[in-house]
Amino acid sequence: MSSETKKILTTDGIPLEESLKKSERKNKIKAFLLVAPLLFFLLITYVFPIGEMLFRSIDDRMVSKMLPKTYVAMEKWDGKELPSEEVFEAFYLDYKILVENKTAGKLSTQLNYEKNGFKSVLKKLARKQKKFTEGNYKEQIMAVHKRWRDVDYWRAIKRRAPEYSYSKYLKGIDMYENEDGNIVQVSEDRRIHRILWTRTLEVAFFVTVFCFLMAYPIAYLLATLPMKYSNLLMICVLLPFWTSLLVRTASWMILLQQQGIVNDFFVFTGLVADDNRPEMMYNKTGTYVAMTQILLPFMVLPLYSVMKTISPSLMRAGKSLGGTPFVTFFKIYFPLTIPGIGAGCLLVFILAIGYYITPALVGGASGTLISNQIAFHMKSTLDWSFASAMGLMLLAGVLAVYWVYNKLVGIDNIKLG
Amino acid sequence: MALPKYTETRYRIWHYIYLSICTFVFFFLIAPLFVIFPLSFNAEEFLVFSDGMKRLDPDAFSLRWYQDMIYGTKNPWGLAAKNSFIIAIFATLGSVLLGTVAALGLSSRYMPFKGIIMAALISPMIVPLIISGVAIFFFMAKVGLAATHTGIILAHIVLGTPFVVITVTATLSGFDHSVTRAAASLGSTPVNTFMKITLPLILPGVISGGLFAFVTSFDEVVVVLFLAGLDNTTIPVQMWTGLREQLSPTILAVATCLIILSTLILVTAELLRRRSERIRGINR
């Protein structure tokens, strides 16, 4: 007997297996179509824009677009000695157009990033070149300022020739490509970004630790108390959770100010002298205190939902077998809560590492984090490609933690409220 | 938690230390919110308790900051409140619609690549707001929606949907699919089944997701700071500006109103959660 006759057929005469597959495919498409609107919406308004940030962060065509002739002429230049008359002439022509179009300022800003001192010499050139006579531009430009006789400045222009560069990423970790093409660190007094990165990690780490230390006891209490008491206490956790972030930050600003209640209390108890009230806001202390209180509910809720599932009889069994309360707690209860600890710590860490509002308001200069630096470049210096690069570096870190979270906890296990 | 009579003294002491730690933490969580309350009735301009307030002198209290909030000259709060509510309501509607439909698909056991898609849909909740803000700002500026209500609403839909997806999938995880099959076998169309059977059962989850989306939008400041022009200012943006420049007691009056609002939302959310648990309990 051949195997074909064994196949089970449906009433339509199609093999059952095939028919089943067909209907499953139909169901798959149906399920996907339901998700599709949101997926496409997010792709367009969210995922692609983040991709555009990536493009923006490496896009370096601004200078090469402004100086097209110069870069063509520079192709033959080896960069060892001063460039030839040809390059000088091309540069003169390019720059003349920029001055006429009133876009020369952009160029000087860009070149000044590359080498300090460009701004003033370009300005001077813009004034003087009106009187330039035709021919021998090399001599005429070099006569304007001695920096034009310095080959380093021409090398700096040449460095901006590539259309794409990772220089913004290097800048984000306080490094740069020097004249010889080596990647080196910036001088010690200008290493601001590395300080910010370490501070961000440090703050996120300690806020996570503080949250854990404070959340664990109360989550345990909430999980073991009878319902009617725990529901009441739960409000203490949920009310801050639902309250506006700015309201909570404002209340910390009131509490921590020098004439504030916390300082009043310290003076009252005699811990500090009235004329020597400590500064608790606009520094790291303020950031720590406010962020811990604000993120605490995000630690309590996952811990609570795990602790709720642990049967109290396990502790009783441990005690009845002769374990002291401490031993039973650390040998039995604590290991069972580790999934909750993982979930809570990762969540708080992820949220803390990208915090912006609270550090900006109570952090002062010594308590600001990397997010504040990104906002600063977006709003004040308008160096959007650098802001994008920094943002993506931060995003990479966050996504790494998110990936770990997804592996350990599973994203669908996030609990809210 | 009463201790049994046979508890040894050292554990008794430890127990009381533990309880006082818990008290401290609860105090730390809730007390800051209550500072705002009395200070918003301060008759003076300073953000400290005046001597009069400490003596409970009635003259030291006043409603002047509430008056200033509502009737003050050139005050931005009326416009901000109007914008905040418009943006939050539309953002909530959008989030609930997109999020609920997506959650229905995600809860189907036939859904392909469930893990990855879920992780992608939740990501706006995880990605730092500053990054979302920068990315969305570039996008909105490009399509010409920067400094418009529409732009901010779309941005808030992005930020709000993860909450709806999470709460609705959680509600659907306890959902008994045999009821929809029963409806289908009785001749109901899929849309009719959804409206008459599925939706009423998952409604608590949908509403609580909607509340999250509403609060997210109502409280969101980072993205709005990038997107908003002068006409789109919202309550959080005004508070942010106020807190940066000078802390005026008017902000505390606004904050008090916001705390009352969040209390109402909390109560609603809690009632919904209990109702949802009850409905799901019946299903089991």
Topology:
The complex is a heterodimer of chains A (about 425) and B (about 280).
Chain A: H1 16-58, H2 61-66, H3 68-74, H4 85-100, H5 104-114, H6 118-128, H7 137-144, H8 151-159, H9 167-172, E1 175-177, E2 183-185, H10 192-224, H11 227-242, H12 245-256, H13 261-269, H14 284-307, H15 312-320, H16 325-336, H17 338-353, H18 357-362, H19 370-381, H20 384-408
Antiparallel strand pairs in A: 1-2
Helix pairs in contact in A: 1-20, 3-4, 5-6, 10-11, 10-14, 10-17, 11-14, 12-14, 14-17, 15-16, 17-20, 19-20
Chain B: H1 9-39, H2 51-54, H3 64-71, H4 77-107, H5 114-126, H6 129-143, H7 149-173, H8 178-185, H9 190-219, H10 222-227, H11 235-245, H12 249-283
What would your notes on this structure say?
The complex is a heterodimer of chains A (417) and B (284). Chain A is built from 20 helices and two strands. Chain A has three domains: 3-58, no CATH class; 61-163, no CATH class; 193-413, MetI-like (MetI-like fold, Orthogonal Bundle). By secondary structure, chain A is an all-alpha fold. In chain A, helix 14 (284-307) runs antiparallel to helix 17. The mean pLDDT of chain A is 85. The mean pLDDT of chain B is 86. Chain B has 284 residues and is mainly α. Chain B has a domain at 87-283: MetI-like (MetI-like fold). Chain B has helices at 9-39, 51-54, 64-71, 77-107, 114-126, 129-143, 149-173, 178-185, 190-219, 222-227, 235-245, 249-283. In chain B, helix 1 crosses helix 12 (249-283). Chains A and B meet through helix 1, helix 10, helix 11, helix 12 and helix 14 of A and helix 1, helix 4, helix 5, helix 6 and helix 7 of B.
